[in-house]
Amino acid sequence: MAAVLKKRALAEYSQTIQETYEPQLKRLRLIKKPPVGRPALALISCLESCKSSNEALHTLLRLSDALEFEPSDIPEAIKKLSDHFKSEPESAVRVKILSLLSDVGNESKSDIVSIIDETILLLKNERSHKVIAQGINTVLKLGKLVSDNSALHQKLLEIAKNYLKDVSHAVKCKCLEIIGMCGPVSGPDAENMLHLIGSYFNNEGARVRSQAFSTVITLQERGMKLNPDIYINVCNALKDDYEIVRSVALKLVWLLGNASPENLIMLPDSEQELRLIDDAFGKVCSGLTDLSMNVRTLAAKLLGTMTLVSSHFLNQTLDKKLMSNMRRKRTAHELAWENVTSGEWASGKKWADDAPREVVDADSINLMSSGACGAFVHGLEDEFLEVRTATVESLCQLAIKNPDFANLSLDFLVDMFNDEIEDVRLIAIDSLRRISEHIILRDDQLETILGALEDFSQDVREGLHRMLASCRMSTTAGLKMCVEKLLDNLKKYPQDKRSTYRCLQRVGAQHPELVLPLVPQFLCIHPFFDVAEPDVDNPQCILFIIVITS
Protein backbone atom coordinates (compact mmCIF):
# COMPACT_ATOMS: atom_id res chain seq x y z
CA MET A 1 0.00 0.00 0.00
CA ALA A 2 2.82 2.33 0.92
CA ALA A 3 4.51 1.63 -2.38
CA VAL A 4 1.37 2.56 -4.31
CA LEU A 5 1.00 5.85 -2.45
CA LYS A 6 4.64 6.68 -3.07
CA LYS A 7 4.27 5.89 -6.75
CA ARG A 8 1.16 8.08 -7.00
CA ALA A 9 2.89 10.98 -5.22
CA LEU A 10 5.89 10.80 -7.52
CA ALA A 11 3.61 10.77 -10.54
CA GLU A 12 1.80 13.90 -9.38
CA TYR A 13 4.99 15.90 -8.71
CA SER A 14 6.88 14.83 -11.82
CA GLN A 15 4.07 15.75 -14.19
CA THR A 16 4.96 18.72 -16.50
CA ILE A 17 2.41 21.17 -17.73
CA GLN A 18 3.14 23.16 -20.94
CA GLU A 19 1.49 26.56 -21.19
CA THR A 20 0.85 28.15 -24.58
CA TYR A 21 2.39 31.65 -24.80
CA GLU A 22 0.47 34.26 -26.69
CA PRO A 23 2.57 37.35 -27.61
CA GLN A 24 1.00 40.55 -26.45
CA LEU A 25 0.18 43.12 -29.04
CA LYS A 26 2.26 46.31 -28.99
CA ARG A 27 0.16 49.22 -27.89
CA LEU A 28 0.67 52.67 -29.33
CA ARG A 29 -0.32 55.76 -27.45
CA LEU A 30 -1.67 58.30 -29.91
CA ILE A 31 -1.79 61.89 -28.78
CA LYS A 32 -3.84 64.38 -30.66
CA LYS A 33 -1.97 67.65 -30.59
CA PRO A 34 -3.96 70.80 -30.10
CA PRO A 35 -4.31 72.99 -33.18
CA VAL A 36 -1.29 75.24 -33.77
CA GLY A 37 -1.97 78.83 -32.94
CA ARG A 38 -1.03 81.85 -35.03
CA PRO A 39 1.43 83.73 -32.79
CA ALA A 40 2.63 86.15 -35.50
CA LEU A 41 -0.87 87.27 -36.39
CA ALA A 42 -1.75 87.48 -32.70
CA LEU A 43 1.23 89.79 -32.08
CA ILE A 44 0.16 92.02 -34.97
CA SER A 45 -3.32 92.19 -33.43
CA CYS A 46 -1.71 93.35 -30.18
CA LEU A 47 -0.57 96.53 -31.92
CA GLU A 48 -4.09 97.90 -31.64
CA SER A 49 -3.95 97.74 -27.85
CA CYS A 50 -0.50 99.35 -27.52
CA LYS A 51 -0.74 102.62 -25.60
CA SER A 52 2.65 104.06 -26.58
CA SER A 53 5.11 103.96 -29.44
CA ASN A 54 7.70 102.30 -27.21
CA GLU A 55 5.31 99.45 -26.45
CA ALA A 56 4.49 99.08 -30.15
CA LEU A 57 8.19 98.93 -31.00
CA HIS A 58 8.75 96.14 -28.45
CA THR A 59 5.83 94.23 -29.96
CA LEU A 60 7.28 94.59 -33.45
CA LEU A 61 10.67 93.37 -32.23
CA ARG A 62 9.00 90.27 -30.77
CA LEU A 63 7.19 89.81 -34.06
CA SER A 64 10.44 89.85 -36.05
CA ASP A 65 11.70 86.91 -33.94
CA ALA A 66 8.58 84.81 -34.64
CA LEU A 67 7.76 85.73 -38.21
CA GLU A 68 5.85 82.67 -39.43
CA PHE A 69 2.57 83.08 -41.29
CA GLU A 70 0.06 80.81 -42.90
CA PRO A 71 -0.42 81.77 -46.57
CA SER A 72 -4.00 82.75 -45.86
CA ASP A 73 -2.96 85.11 -43.03
CA ILE A 74 -0.52 87.24 -45.03
CA PRO A 75 -3.07 89.67 -46.59
CA GLU A 76 -4.58 90.30 -43.15
CA ALA A 77 -1.13 90.83 -41.62
CA ILE A 78 -0.17 93.32 -44.35
CA LYS A 79 -3.41 95.25 -43.82
CA LYS A 80 -2.96 95.48 -40.04
CA LEU A 81 0.67 96.60 -40.36
CA SER A 82 -0.33 99.18 -42.95
CA ASP A 83 -3.15 100.53 -40.77
CA HIS A 84 -0.84 100.91 -37.79
CA PHE A 85 1.77 102.62 -40.00
CA LYS A 86 -0.76 105.31 -40.94
CA SER A 87 -1.64 106.06 -37.32
CA GLU A 88 1.86 105.78 -35.81
CA PRO A 89 3.52 109.14 -34.95
CA GLU A 90 6.99 107.75 -34.16
CA SER A 91 9.31 107.38 -37.17
CA ALA A 92 11.33 104.54 -35.61
CA VAL A 93 8.19 102.39 -35.38
CA ARG A 94 7.28 103.16 -38.99
CA VAL A 95 10.79 102.17 -40.09
CA LYS A 96 10.39 98.85 -38.27
CA ILE A 97 7.01 98.23 -39.92
CA LEU A 98 8.51 98.74 -43.39
CA SER A 99 11.35 96.40 -42.48
CA LEU A 100 8.81 93.76 -41.41
CA LEU A 101 6.97 94.14 -44.71
CA SER A 102 10.23 93.25 -46.46
CA ASP A 103 10.61 90.16 -44.26
CA VAL A 104 7.02 89.12 -44.94
CA GLY A 105 7.68 89.39 -48.68
CA ASN A 106 10.74 87.15 -48.33
CA GLU A 107 8.59 84.54 -46.56
CA SER A 108 5.81 84.60 -49.15
CA LYS A 109 6.97 85.02 -52.73
CA SER A 110 3.40 85.14 -54.07
CA ASP A 111 2.48 88.43 -52.35
CA ILE A 112 5.58 90.43 -53.32
CA VAL A 113 3.83 92.66 -55.86
CA SER A 114 1.04 93.56 -53.44
CA ILE A 115 3.55 94.37 -50.69
CA ILE A 116 5.52 96.62 -53.07
CA ASP A 117 2.34 98.46 -54.08
CA GLU A 118 1.32 98.89 -50.45
CA THR A 119 4.78 100.21 -49.54
CA ILE A 120 4.68 102.76 -52.36
CA LEU A 121 1.27 103.97 -51.13
CA LEU A 122 2.55 104.33 -47.57
CA LEU A 123 5.46 106.50 -48.75
CA LYS A 124 3.28 108.99 -50.64
CA ASN A 125 2.61 111.29 -47.67
CA GLU A 126 5.77 110.46 -45.72
CA ARG A 127 8.06 113.27 -44.58
CA SER A 128 10.72 111.44 -42.57
CA HIS A 129 13.88 110.77 -44.58
CA LYS A 130 14.69 107.67 -42.51
CA VAL A 131 11.28 106.17 -43.23
CA ILE A 132 11.53 106.98 -46.94
CA ALA A 133 15.00 105.40 -47.11
CA GLN A 134 13.70 102.24 -45.42
CA GLY A 135 10.70 102.15 -47.74
CA ILE A 136 12.91 102.42 -50.83
CA ASN A 137 15.14 99.71 -49.36
CA THR A 138 12.09 97.46 -48.86
CA VAL A 139 11.03 98.01 -52.46
CA LEU A 140 14.60 97.31 -53.61
CA LYS A 141 14.89 94.01 -51.73
CA LEU A 142 11.52 92.77 -52.92
CA GLY A 143 12.15 93.92 -56.49
CA LYS A 144 15.27 91.73 -56.66
CA LEU A 145 13.07 88.70 -55.99
CA VAL A 146 10.92 89.43 -59.07
CA SER A 147 13.51 89.65 -61.83
CA ASP A 148 11.17 88.76 -64.71
CA ASN A 149 8.46 91.38 -64.15
CA SER A 150 9.42 94.20 -66.53
CA ALA A 151 6.29 96.26 -65.77
CA LEU A 152 7.10 96.24 -62.07
CA HIS A 153 10.72 97.21 -62.74
CA GLN A 154 9.60 100.12 -64.90
CA LYS A 155 7.35 101.26 -62.07
CA LEU A 156 10.22 101.01 -59.57
CA LEU A 157 12.42 102.99 -61.95
CA GLU A 158 9.93 105.86 -62.02
CA ILE A 159 9.67 105.79 -58.22
CA ALA A 160 13.48 105.94 -57.95
CA LYS A 161 13.69 108.91 -60.33
CA ASN A 162 11.03 110.72 -58.31
CA TYR A 163 12.71 110.24 -54.93
CA LEU A 164 16.18 110.91 -56.36
CA LYS A 165 15.52 114.61 -55.73
CA ASP A 166 15.35 114.02 -51.98
CA VAL A 167 17.94 115.87 -49.89
CA SER A 168 18.85 112.80 -47.82
CA HIS A 169 21.93 110.91 -48.91
CA ALA A 170 20.40 107.61 -47.75
CA VAL A 171 17.36 108.07 -50.01
CA LYS A 172 19.55 109.03 -52.98
CA CYS A 173 21.79 106.01 -52.50
CA LYS A 174 18.85 103.60 -52.43
CA CYS A 175 17.30 105.24 -55.50
CA LEU A 176 20.57 104.92 -57.41
CA GLU A 177 20.73 101.28 -56.39
CA ILE A 178 17.25 100.71 -57.81
CA ILE A 179 18.31 102.41 -61.06
CA GLY A 180 21.24 100.03 -61.29
CA MET A 181 18.90 97.07 -60.81
CA CYS A 182 16.03 98.16 -63.07
CA GLY A 183 17.57 100.65 -65.51
CA PRO A 184 17.71 99.97 -69.27
CA VAL A 185 21.02 98.68 -70.63
CA SER A 186 20.61 99.53 -74.33
CA GLY A 187 19.09 102.15 -76.58
CA PRO A 188 18.65 105.90 -76.12
CA ASP A 189 17.02 105.38 -72.72
CA ALA A 190 20.25 103.82 -71.48
CA GLU A 191 22.26 106.86 -72.64
CA ASN A 192 19.86 109.20 -70.83
CA MET A 193 20.04 107.07 -67.72
CA LEU A 194 23.84 107.10 -67.81
CA HIS A 195 23.76 110.89 -68.14
CA LEU A 196 21.43 111.10 -65.12
CA ILE A 197 23.74 108.94 -63.03
CA GLY A 198 26.77 110.94 -64.18
CA SER A 199 25.22 114.10 -62.75
CA TYR A 200 25.78 112.61 -59.28
CA PHE A 201 29.50 111.94 -59.80
CA ASN A 202 30.25 115.33 -58.23
CA ASN A 203 27.55 115.28 -55.54
CA GLU A 204 28.42 116.86 -52.21
CA GLY A 205 27.85 113.57 -50.37
CA ALA A 206 30.66 111.01 -50.52
CA ARG A 207 28.23 108.10 -50.15
CA VAL A 208 26.13 109.41 -53.04
CA ARG A 209 29.21 109.75 -55.25
CA SER A 210 30.31 106.24 -54.36
CA GLN A 211 26.86 104.80 -55.08
CA ALA A 212 26.69 106.63 -58.43
CA PHE A 213 29.89 104.90 -59.56
CA SER A 214 28.64 101.58 -58.17
CA THR A 215 25.42 101.99 -60.15
CA VAL A 216 27.40 102.38 -63.38
CA ILE A 217 29.34 99.22 -62.51
CA THR A 218 26.07 97.36 -61.89
CA LEU A 219 24.68 98.45 -65.25
CA GLN A 220 27.88 97.35 -66.97
CA GLU A 221 27.65 93.93 -65.31
CA ARG A 222 24.08 93.65 -66.60
CA GLY A 223 25.29 94.20 -70.17
CA MET A 224 25.40 97.95 -70.76
CA LYS A 225 28.17 99.16 -73.08
CA LEU A 226 29.70 102.10 -71.26
CA ASN A 227 30.48 105.32 -73.08
CA PRO A 228 34.24 106.07 -72.80
CA ASP A 229 33.39 109.78 -72.50
CA ILE A 230 32.78 109.33 -68.76
CA TYR A 231 36.40 108.25 -68.32
CA ILE A 232 37.70 111.74 -67.51
CA ASN A 233 35.10 112.30 -64.78
CA VAL A 234 35.84 108.91 -63.27
CA CYS A 235 39.59 109.63 -63.24
CA ASN A 236 38.95 112.87 -61.35
CA ALA A 237 37.29 110.82 -58.60
CA LEU A 238 40.58 108.99 -58.00
CA LYS A 239 41.72 112.12 -56.14
CA ASP A 240 38.64 112.16 -53.88
CA ASP A 241 39.11 112.69 -50.15
CA TYR A 242 37.08 109.61 -49.24
CA GLU A 243 38.30 106.04 -49.53
CA ILE A 244 34.90 104.63 -50.53
CA VAL A 245 34.82 106.91 -53.57
CA ARG A 246 38.41 106.23 -54.64
CA SER A 247 38.02 102.46 -54.41
CA VAL A 248 34.86 102.25 -56.52
CA ALA A 249 36.22 104.80 -59.02
CA LEU A 250 39.36 102.69 -59.35
CA LYS A 251 37.27 99.65 -60.21
CA LEU A 252 35.29 101.66 -62.79
CA VAL A 253 38.52 102.88 -64.42
CA TRP A 254 39.61 99.26 -64.65
CA LEU A 255 36.29 98.28 -66.23
CA LEU A 256 36.44 101.08 -68.80
CA GLY A 257 40.01 100.18 -69.75
CA ASN A 258 39.19 96.51 -70.28
CA ALA A 259 35.90 97.26 -72.07
CA SER A 260 37.41 99.65 -74.68
CA PRO A 261 41.15 98.95 -74.72
CA GLU A 262 41.86 100.33 -78.20
CA ASN A 263 39.89 103.54 -77.76
CA LEU A 264 42.23 106.55 -78.11
CA ILE A 265 42.10 109.44 -75.65
CA MET A 266 43.89 112.77 -75.71
CA LEU A 267 46.27 113.38 -72.84
CA PRO A 268 45.67 116.63 -70.94
CA ASP A 269 48.02 119.49 -71.90
CA SER A 270 49.37 117.42 -74.77
CA GLU A 271 48.66 116.58 -78.39
CA GLN A 272 49.54 112.94 -77.92
CA GLU A 273 46.90 110.21 -78.10
CA LEU A 274 47.07 107.17 -75.88
CA ARG A 275 45.25 103.84 -75.76
CA LEU A 276 42.59 103.76 -73.09
CA ILE A 277 43.92 100.54 -71.57
CA ASP A 278 47.39 102.08 -71.20
CA ASP A 279 46.11 105.20 -69.49
CA ALA A 280 43.79 103.16 -67.26
CA PHE A 281 46.73 100.94 -66.35
CA GLY A 282 48.69 103.99 -65.23
CA LYS A 283 45.73 105.22 -63.17
CA VAL A 284 45.35 101.85 -61.45
CA CYS A 285 49.10 101.79 -60.79
CA SER A 286 48.75 105.15 -59.04
CA GLY A 287 46.38 103.42 -56.62
CA LEU A 288 49.35 101.48 -55.22
CA THR A 289 50.58 104.70 -53.60
CA ASP A 290 47.19 105.53 -52.05
CA LEU A 291 46.98 106.34 -48.34
CA SER A 292 44.39 103.62 -47.72
CA MET A 293 45.48 100.01 -47.43
CA ASN A 294 42.18 98.79 -48.90
CA VAL A 295 42.63 100.94 -52.02
CA ARG A 296 46.21 99.74 -52.45
CA THR A 297 45.11 96.12 -52.12
CA LEU A 298 42.33 96.62 -54.68
CA ALA A 299 44.72 98.31 -57.11
CA ALA A 300 47.21 95.46 -56.76
CA LYS A 301 44.50 92.87 -57.49
CA LEU A 302 43.17 94.73 -60.53
CA LEU A 303 46.60 95.07 -62.16
CA GLY A 304 46.88 91.33 -62.70
CA THR A 305 43.87 91.25 -65.04
CA MET A 306 44.98 94.11 -67.35
CA THR A 307 46.79 91.84 -69.78
CA LEU A 308 46.23 94.03 -72.88
CA VAL A 309 48.51 96.83 -71.69
CA SER A 310 51.51 97.81 -73.84
CA SER A 311 54.90 96.32 -73.02
CA HIS A 312 56.66 99.62 -72.28
CA PHE A 313 53.98 100.51 -69.73
CA LEU A 314 54.19 97.06 -68.20
CA ASN A 315 57.97 97.12 -67.94
CA GLN A 316 57.85 100.57 -66.33
CA THR A 317 56.11 99.08 -63.27
CA LEU A 318 59.40 97.49 -62.22
CA ASP A 319 61.49 100.65 -62.66
CA LYS A 320 61.51 103.53 -60.18
CA LYS A 321 63.34 105.97 -62.44
CA LEU A 322 61.55 109.28 -62.95
CA MET A 323 59.47 109.65 -66.07
CA SER A 324 58.11 112.59 -68.01
CA ASN A 325 54.58 111.40 -67.28
CA MET A 326 54.89 108.94 -70.21
CA ARG A 327 54.92 111.75 -72.78
CA ARG A 328 56.61 111.17 -76.13
CA LYS A 329 59.97 112.88 -76.49
CA ARG A 330 60.17 115.22 -79.46
CA THR A 331 62.98 114.65 -81.93
CA ALA A 332 65.70 117.23 -82.63
CA HIS A 333 64.17 117.86 -86.06
CA GLU A 334 60.79 118.66 -84.46
CA LEU A 335 62.42 121.00 -81.95
CA ALA A 336 64.31 122.81 -84.74
CA TRP A 337 61.18 123.14 -86.82
CA GLU A 338 59.39 124.61 -83.81
CA ASN A 339 62.12 127.25 -83.55
CA VAL A 340 61.74 128.11 -87.24
CA THR A 341 57.98 128.45 -87.00
CA SER A 342 58.00 130.28 -83.67
CA GLY A 343 57.76 133.71 -85.32
CA GLU A 344 60.59 135.14 -83.22
CA TRP A 345 64.03 136.21 -84.50
CA ALA A 346 67.26 136.19 -82.58
CA SER A 347 70.10 138.73 -82.60
CA GLY A 348 72.09 136.50 -84.94
CA LYS A 349 74.52 135.00 -82.47
CA LYS A 350 72.36 131.94 -81.83
CA TRP A 351 69.40 130.69 -83.77
CA ALA A 352 66.10 131.45 -81.97
CA ASP A 353 67.80 132.25 -78.67
CA ASP A 354 64.98 134.58 -77.68
CA ALA A 355 62.10 132.36 -78.83
CA PRO A 356 59.34 131.86 -76.25
CA ARG A 357 59.74 128.79 -74.09
CA GLU A 358 57.11 126.26 -73.12
CA VAL A 359 54.85 127.50 -70.37
CA VAL A 360 55.12 125.14 -67.43
CA ASP A 361 52.14 124.87 -65.10
CA ALA A 362 53.20 124.57 -61.47
CA ASP A 363 50.25 122.29 -60.69
CA SER A 364 51.32 119.79 -63.34
CA ILE A 365 54.74 119.20 -61.76
CA ASN A 366 54.88 116.28 -59.33
CA LEU A 367 57.86 115.79 -57.06
CA MET A 368 57.16 112.04 -56.97
CA SER A 369 56.94 109.73 -59.95
CA SER A 370 53.44 109.03 -61.17
CA GLY A 371 51.60 106.56 -63.32
CA ALA A 372 53.03 103.10 -63.84
CA CYS A 373 56.52 104.07 -62.69
CA GLY A 374 57.69 101.50 -60.12
CA ALA A 375 54.15 100.45 -59.21
CA PHE A 376 54.96 96.81 -58.51
CA VAL A 377 58.07 97.81 -56.57
CA HIS A 378 55.89 99.95 -54.29
CA GLY A 379 53.46 97.07 -53.85
CA LEU A 380 56.16 94.53 -53.01
CA GLU A 381 57.67 96.90 -50.43
CA ASP A 382 54.33 97.73 -48.77
CA GLU A 383 54.08 97.35 -45.00
CA PHE A 384 50.81 95.37 -45.15
CA LEU A 385 50.90 91.72 -46.12
CA GLU A 386 47.53 92.01 -47.94
CA VAL A 387 49.08 94.47 -50.40
CA ARG A 388 52.25 92.41 -50.85
CA THR A 389 50.24 89.22 -51.38
CA ALA A 390 47.98 90.81 -54.00
CA THR A 391 51.00 92.37 -55.74
CA VAL A 392 52.84 89.04 -56.01
CA GLU A 393 49.74 87.35 -57.44
CA SER A 394 49.20 90.10 -60.03
CA LEU A 395 52.88 90.06 -60.95
CA CYS A 396 52.58 86.32 -61.59
CA GLN A 397 49.41 86.69 -63.70
CA LEU A 398 51.01 89.28 -65.96
CA ALA A 399 54.28 87.34 -66.20
CA ILE A 400 52.45 84.21 -67.38
CA LYS A 401 51.08 86.17 -70.37
CA ASN A 402 54.32 88.05 -71.14
CA PRO A 403 57.65 86.11 -71.25
CA ASP A 404 59.78 89.28 -71.39
CA PHE A 405 58.06 90.67 -68.32
CA ALA A 406 58.55 87.30 -66.59
CA ASN A 407 62.32 87.62 -66.95
CA LEU A 408 62.23 91.19 -65.66
CA SER A 409 60.14 90.23 -62.63
CA LEU A 410 62.29 87.23 -61.71
CA ASP A 411 64.63 89.14 -59.37
CA PHE A 412 61.70 90.74 -57.55
CA LEU A 413 59.95 87.42 -57.00
CA VAL A 414 63.15 85.85 -55.71
CA ASP A 415 63.57 88.70 -53.23
CA MET A 416 60.11 87.93 -51.83
CA PHE A 417 61.42 84.54 -50.67
CA ASN A 418 62.89 86.43 -47.71
CA ASP A 419 59.59 88.04 -46.66
CA GLU A 420 58.82 87.91 -42.96
CA ILE A 421 55.34 86.42 -43.49
CA GLU A 422 55.15 82.74 -44.41
CA ASP A 423 52.04 83.13 -46.59
CA VAL A 424 53.80 85.74 -48.73
CA ARG A 425 56.81 83.45 -49.14
CA LEU A 426 54.58 80.55 -50.17
CA ILE A 427 52.77 82.66 -52.79
CA ALA A 428 56.08 83.95 -54.17
CA ILE A 429 57.44 80.40 -54.43
CA ASP A 430 54.30 79.16 -56.18
CA SER A 431 54.34 82.18 -58.52
CA LEU A 432 57.89 81.40 -59.59
CA ARG A 433 56.86 77.80 -60.26
CA ARG A 434 53.97 78.96 -62.46
CA ILE A 435 56.20 81.15 -64.65
CA SER A 436 59.04 78.61 -64.79
CA GLU A 437 58.50 77.91 -68.51
CA HIS A 438 59.54 81.49 -69.34
CA ILE A 439 62.65 81.83 -67.13
CA ILE A 440 66.14 80.42 -66.65
CA LEU A 441 67.69 80.81 -63.20
CA ARG A 442 71.07 82.48 -62.89
CA ASP A 443 73.54 81.29 -60.25
CA ASP A 444 73.05 84.34 -58.01
CA GLN A 445 69.27 83.90 -58.11
CA LEU A 446 69.64 80.20 -57.43
CA GLU A 447 71.82 80.97 -54.40
CA THR A 448 69.08 83.16 -52.92
CA ILE A 449 66.46 80.50 -53.59
CA LEU A 450 68.55 77.75 -52.00
CA GLY A 451 69.07 79.93 -48.94
CA ALA A 452 65.32 79.76 -48.33
CA LEU A 453 65.63 75.98 -47.84
CA GLU A 454 66.73 76.71 -44.28
CA ASP A 455 63.15 77.73 -43.50
CA PHE A 456 61.67 75.92 -40.50
CA SER A 457 58.29 75.53 -42.23
CA GLN A 458 57.89 72.23 -44.05
CA ASP A 459 55.32 73.80 -46.40
CA VAL A 460 57.90 76.34 -47.57
CA ARG A 461 60.57 73.68 -48.09
CA GLU A 462 58.25 71.42 -50.07
CA GLY A 463 57.10 74.40 -52.13
CA LEU A 464 60.73 75.15 -52.94
CA HIS A 465 61.23 71.52 -53.98
CA ARG A 466 58.30 71.76 -56.41
CA MET A 467 59.58 75.07 -57.74
CA LEU A 468 63.15 73.80 -58.28
CA ALA A 469 61.75 70.74 -60.05
CA SER A 470 60.00 73.02 -62.56
CA CYS A 471 62.73 75.59 -63.18
CA ARG A 472 65.67 75.46 -65.58
CA MET A 473 69.23 76.28 -64.54
CA SER A 474 71.85 77.99 -66.63
CA THR A 475 75.21 76.48 -65.59
CA THR A 476 76.78 73.28 -64.37
CA ALA A 477 78.03 75.06 -61.25
CA GLY A 478 74.48 76.10 -60.42
CA LEU A 479 73.21 72.55 -60.79
CA LYS A 480 75.99 71.21 -58.59
CA MET A 481 75.26 73.86 -55.96
CA CYS A 482 71.58 72.90 -56.04
CA VAL A 483 72.27 69.18 -55.55
CA GLU A 484 74.74 69.79 -52.71
CA LYS A 485 72.37 72.18 -50.95
CA LEU A 486 69.52 69.68 -51.19
CA LEU A 487 71.82 67.01 -49.73
CA ASP A 488 72.76 69.23 -46.77
CA ASN A 489 69.12 70.12 -46.27
CA LEU A 490 68.14 66.45 -46.25
CA LYS A 491 70.59 65.79 -43.42
CA LYS A 492 68.95 68.56 -41.40
CA TYR A 493 65.35 67.62 -42.23
CA PRO A 494 65.15 63.84 -42.84
CA GLN A 495 61.36 64.05 -43.07
CA ASP A 496 61.77 65.76 -46.48
CA LYS A 497 63.26 62.64 -48.09
CA ARG A 498 60.42 61.82 -50.49
CA SER A 499 59.98 65.44 -51.57
CA THR A 500 63.74 65.85 -52.08
CA TYR A 501 64.03 62.65 -54.13
CA ARG A 502 61.12 63.72 -56.34
CA CYS A 503 62.70 67.14 -56.84
CA LEU A 504 66.10 65.73 -57.86
CA GLN A 505 64.47 63.26 -60.24
CA ARG A 506 62.82 66.16 -62.11
CA VAL A 507 65.99 68.28 -61.98
CA GLY A 508 68.05 65.49 -63.52
CA ALA A 509 65.46 64.83 -66.22
CA GLN A 510 65.34 68.50 -67.25
CA HIS A 511 69.13 69.09 -67.38
CA PRO A 512 70.82 66.09 -69.06
CA GLU A 513 73.46 68.31 -70.69
CA LEU A 514 74.42 69.80 -67.30
CA VAL A 515 74.39 66.50 -65.41
CA LEU A 516 76.76 64.70 -67.82
CA PRO A 517 79.93 66.68 -66.91
CA LEU A 518 79.19 66.15 -63.21
CA VAL A 519 78.93 62.34 -63.34
CA PRO A 520 82.64 61.72 -62.45
CA GLN A 521 82.36 64.08 -59.46
CA PHE A 522 79.07 62.63 -58.23
CA LEU A 523 80.29 59.00 -58.48
CA CYS A 524 83.89 59.78 -57.38
CA ILE A 525 85.33 58.27 -60.58
CA HIS A 526 89.03 58.95 -61.16
CA PRO A 527 90.50 58.65 -64.68
CA PHE A 528 93.64 56.83 -63.46
CA PHE A 529 93.05 55.33 -60.02
CA ASP A 530 90.52 52.73 -59.05
CA VAL A 531 88.83 54.17 -55.99
CA ALA A 532 86.58 52.36 -53.55
CA GLU A 533 82.99 51.91 -54.61
CA PRO A 534 80.54 54.17 -52.79
CA ASP A 535 78.07 52.71 -50.33
CA VAL A 536 74.72 52.41 -52.11
CA ASP A 537 72.90 52.77 -48.78
CA ASN A 538 74.42 56.18 -48.23
CA PRO A 539 71.81 58.96 -48.79
CA GLN A 540 74.42 60.99 -50.67
CA CYS A 541 75.00 58.16 -53.12
CA ILE A 542 71.25 57.66 -53.53
CA LEU A 543 70.79 61.33 -54.39
CA PHE A 544 73.56 61.29 -56.98
CA ILE A 545 72.22 58.11 -58.59
CA ILE A 546 68.72 59.62 -58.81
CA VAL A 547 70.07 62.71 -60.57
CA ILE A 548 72.23 60.72 -63.00
CA THR A 549 69.74 58.01 -63.92
CA SER A 550 66.89 60.43 -64.47
TrEMBL record:
GO BP of this protein: snRNA processing
InterPro entries the UniProt entry points to: ARM-like (IPR011989), ARM-type_fold (IPR016024)
Organism: Ignelater luminosus (Cucubano)
Name the UniProt record assigns to this protein: Integrator complex subunit 4
Any one of the GO CC terms: integrator complex
Superkingdom as given in the UniProt entry: Eukaryota
